[in-house]
C-alpha cells in the first residue's frame, strides 16, 4: 500500500518529505544508519577477552567499561531527542555518525583501559542520538500509513545491528591479522555508507526550526496522555534489554568457564543468535495485540533468567544458549511493543523525545545491574553473582508483565 499525496504532505509538515510519494525502499534505507551504529555498539564484545588478557583487568572493570557505553548513551538521550524534534533529524544524525567514526579510531588504537572507556563513551553518545533521531526518521519517512511498519523496521534495525556487530567482530578477529584494527576499519566503512544514506534521506527540518517549549537539555518525556503507554513499554523493555546487556558483558566469561574456550567466534555467535532471535520474534508477533506481545516479552525474560541460573549451576551450555535466545526474545518483544505504543500515540514533533524517554527507562537498569553483577561475581564468584542478578531481573520482568495485564485501557489493535 502506498502513501497518498495528502499523507506525504502531512509527514512533511512535521519532519517528512512533502511534495510526492516516498518509495517504500526509502523506509528500509532510513533504517540503515540505525543498523550501522548498532553494529558498532556491540562490535567490541568478542574482543574484551583479548583486551582483558592483554591489559589484565577484572570482570568488575569489564562491566564498568561496558557501562560507560550506557552512561554516554543516557547523557546523549537528555539532549538528542529534543534537539532532533526542534532542528530536524539530519542535524543530529550526521554528528552522531561522525562521533561513531571517532570511536572506531580509538578502539582500533586502544592501548589501555582508559582508551576503551573513551571509545565506549563515544559509542554510547552516538547510539543515544541514533536511537532517538534515527528511529524517528524511519517513522517520518514512512508516513502515517506506514507507522506500524516503521516501528517494526526501526526496532529490528536496532537489534539486528546489535547482533551482527559481535558476529562480524568475532569472525574477522579470528581469521584476519590485526584483529582490532580490521574489525573497526570494516565498521568505519559501514558508517560511511550510513552517512551517505542520511545525506540523501528524504526528510527535512521542521517548518519552524527551533520551535518548542522547555529546556533543550532535560530528562526526555512524552506529551500529556501518553505517559501510560511509555510506562507499559518501559516495564517490559527494561528487563529485556538488561538481560541482553548481561549476556553481552559477561557472556564471554561464562562461555570460557563452561566450554573452556576463549574463541571470539563462539562468543560473537552467541550474541548474534541472541539478537537474531530478537529480530525474528518481532516479525513473528507483528500481527498480535500489543498487550499480548508485551506480556509474552516479560514471560520470555523470566524464562531466560531461569535458564541463566540453571546454566551457571549445572554447567549446561544448552541452558546458556537458551538463556541468550529467551533474553533476545524478551528484549525484542518489549522494544517492539513499546515503540508501537509510542508511534500510535505521540505526534511526529515529539516522537524523537518519546523514543529517547523509552530508551532512558530501558538503558538505566541495563547499565546499573550488570555492573553490580560483575562486582558481586568478583567478590563471591560467578555462580553466586549470576544467580543474584538473574533472580532480581526475573522479579522485575514479572512485575512488568503484571502491570501490563492490569492495564485495562490498553488498546487491542495488533502491531501490524
Automatic annotation (TrEMBL):
Keywords, sorted A to Z: Cell membrane, Membrane, Transmembrane, Transmembrane helix, Transport
Boundaries of every Major facilitator superfamily (MFS) profile domain copy: 1-412
GO molecular function (one): transmembrane transporter activity
Transmembrane segments: 26-51, 57-80, 92-111, 117-138, 150-169, 181-199, 230-250, 265-285, 292-313, 319-342, 354-376, 382-406
Domain of life: Bacteria
Membrane topology label: Multi-pass membrane protein
SUPFAM superfamilies on file: MFS general substrate transporter (SSF103473)
Example of a GO cellular component annotation carried by this entry: plasma membrane
Gene3D superfamilies: MFS general substrate transporter like domains
Localization per record: Cell membrane
Principal subcellular localisation of the protein: membrane
Protein name, UniProt field: MFS family permease
Source species: Streptomyces echinatus
Amino acid at each position: 500500500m502506498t502513501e497518498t499525496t495528502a499523507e506525504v504532505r502531512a509527514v512533511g509538515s512535521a519532519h517528512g518529505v512533502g511534495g510526492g510519494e516516498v518509495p517504500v525502499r526509502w523506509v528500509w534505507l532510513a533504517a540503515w544508519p540505525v543498523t550501522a551504529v548498532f553494529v558498532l555498539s556491540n562490535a567490541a564484545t568478542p574482543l574484551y577477552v583479548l583486551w582483558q588478557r592483554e591489559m589484565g583487568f577484572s570482570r568488575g572493570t569489564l562491566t564498568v567499561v561496558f557501562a560507560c557505553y550506557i552512561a554516554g548513551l543516557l547523557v546523549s538521550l537528555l539532549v538528542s531527542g529534543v534537539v532532533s524534534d526542534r532542528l530536524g533529524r539530519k542535524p543530529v544524525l550526521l554528528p552522531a555518525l561522525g562521533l561513531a567514526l571517532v570511536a572506531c579510531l580509538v578502539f582500533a588504537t586502544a592501548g589501555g583501559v582508559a582508551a576503551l572507556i573513551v571509545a565506549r563513551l563515544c559509542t554510547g553518545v552516538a547510539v543515544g542520538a541514533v536511537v532517538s533521531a534515527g528511529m524517528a526518521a524511519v517513522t517520518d519517512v514512512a508516513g502515517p500509513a506506514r507507522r506500524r511498519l516503521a516501528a517494526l523496521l526501526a526496532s529490528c534495525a536496532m537489534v539486528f545491528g546489535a547482533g551482527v556487530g559481535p558476529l562480524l567482530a568475532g569472525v574477522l578477529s579470528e581469521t584476519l591479522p590485526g584483529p582490532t584494527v580490521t574489525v573497526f576499519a570494516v565498521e568505519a566503512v559501514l558508517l560511511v555508507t550510513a552517512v551517505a544514506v542520511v545525506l540523501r534521506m528524504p526528510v527535512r527540518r521542521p517548518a519552524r526550526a527551533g520551535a518548542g517549549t522547555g529546556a533543550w537539555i532535560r530528562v526526555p518525556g512524552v506529551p500529556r496522555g501518553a505517559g501510560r503507554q511509555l510506562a507499559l513499554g518501559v516495564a517490559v523493555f527494561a528487563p529485556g534489554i538488561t538481560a541482553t546487556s548481561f549476556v553481552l558483558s559477561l557472556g564471554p566469561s561464562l562461555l570460557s568457564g563452561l566450554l573452556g574456550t576463549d574463541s571470539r567466534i563462539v562468543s560473537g555467535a552467541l550474541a548474534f543468535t541472541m539478537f537474531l532471535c530478537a529480530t525474528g520474534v518481532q516479525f513473528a508477533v507483528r500481527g498480535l495485540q500489543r498487550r499480548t506481545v508485551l506480556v509474552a516479552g516479560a514471560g520470555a525474560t523470566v524464562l531466560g533468567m531461569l535458564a541463566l541460573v540453571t546454566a551457571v549451576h549445572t554447567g549446561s551450555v544448552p541452558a546458556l544458549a537458551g538463556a541468550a535466545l529467551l533474553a533476545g526474545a524478551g528484549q525484542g518483544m518489549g522494544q517492539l511493543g513499546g515503540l508501537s505504543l509510542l508511534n500510535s500515540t505521540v505526534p511526529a514533533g515529539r516522537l524523537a523525545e518519546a523514543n529517547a524517554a523509552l530508551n532512558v527507562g530501558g538503558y538505566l537498569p541495563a547499565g546499573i545491574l550488570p555492573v553490580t553483577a560483575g562486582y558481586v561475581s568478583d567478590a563471591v564468584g560467578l555462580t553466586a553473582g549470576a544467580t543474584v542478578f538473574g533472580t532480581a531481573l526475573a522479579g522485575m520482568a514479572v512485575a512488568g508483565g503484571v502491570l501490563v495485564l492490569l492495564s485495562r485501557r490498553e488498546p487491542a489493535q495488533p502491531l501490524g
